[in-house]
Amino acid sequence: MQPEQTNLNGEITNDAVIEYLLRHPEFFMGNQDILTRLRVPHNSGKAVSLIEKQVSVLRSKCTHLEKSLLDLIAVARQNETVHQRLHLLNQEIITAPTLAEIVALTQSCLRESFNAESVHLMLIAPAPKRASRKKVANKRAETRSPPRKRATKLEQFEGAVTVRHTDKRAKQFDELFEGGSTLCGMPSDAQLMAIVGSNHAEVGSAAMIPLHYKRKLGVVMLTSRDESRFGVGKGVMFLNQLGELLSRRIHSYGAHVQEAGK
Fold first, then answer.
1. Which residue has the higher pLDDT, 95 or 208?
2. What is the pLDDT of residue 180?
3. Is the pTM of this model over 0.70?
């Protein structure tokens, strides 16, 4: 480029642009995408011509579509990142040797991948298995004494609370289990008390994942102070997929109940 084609600020001059377009009259044929960005005056007095109005509308639509496309690309990239993290979590859950490790993995991953300030779990122990009438009768005949119920205690895990299937805290989530899908919004005070405990005043929104496979297994609750973080209408596809995997994996461990004295 010759020196006279730029001004003192290093910018290309109007004459340079004109000269270039005259030497390349087909320029706009190969670069039609920039036509919507150009402003070409159309003299029509004080009135706005139809052509100007059409161009203005098209330019506005183009800008809106371009912004929407950029937003979609950003969301797609974010979803890809979350998907990769959950894929790694799935692999870890499948190979985790203990239920306690599954609880810890779930909490750490959900905090990182979904920007949850806290992740709480409630595990529901199954109903104890009843002995058959024949076994009970034989035992009575041997001992000649009425059967006694064996005391049981629930296994507890760090970062989770385990309750019996008859516990009132478990009953607070009957509607969640009936829906069968992750629910976002603001839980009831009773639900927060059941999982989070008394320190739930700062919770602004939450996502509740039901864990269910052949029976009610528990609930995972992600909480945030931000009311919009897990507001109603948020996408829950990834959380539902995680809930399905967790349900089957937790079910494979059987009861979270340990006989007293063992």
1. 208
2. 92
3. no
Q: Where are the domains of the chain?
A: 14-58, 96-128+152-259
CATH code assigned to 96-128+152-259: 3.30.450.40
62-78 as b/e: b if 16+ CB within 10 A: eeeeeeeeeeeeeeeee
For the stretch 128-169, pLDDT in tens is: 766 555 555 565 555 555 555 444 556 677 778 888 888 999
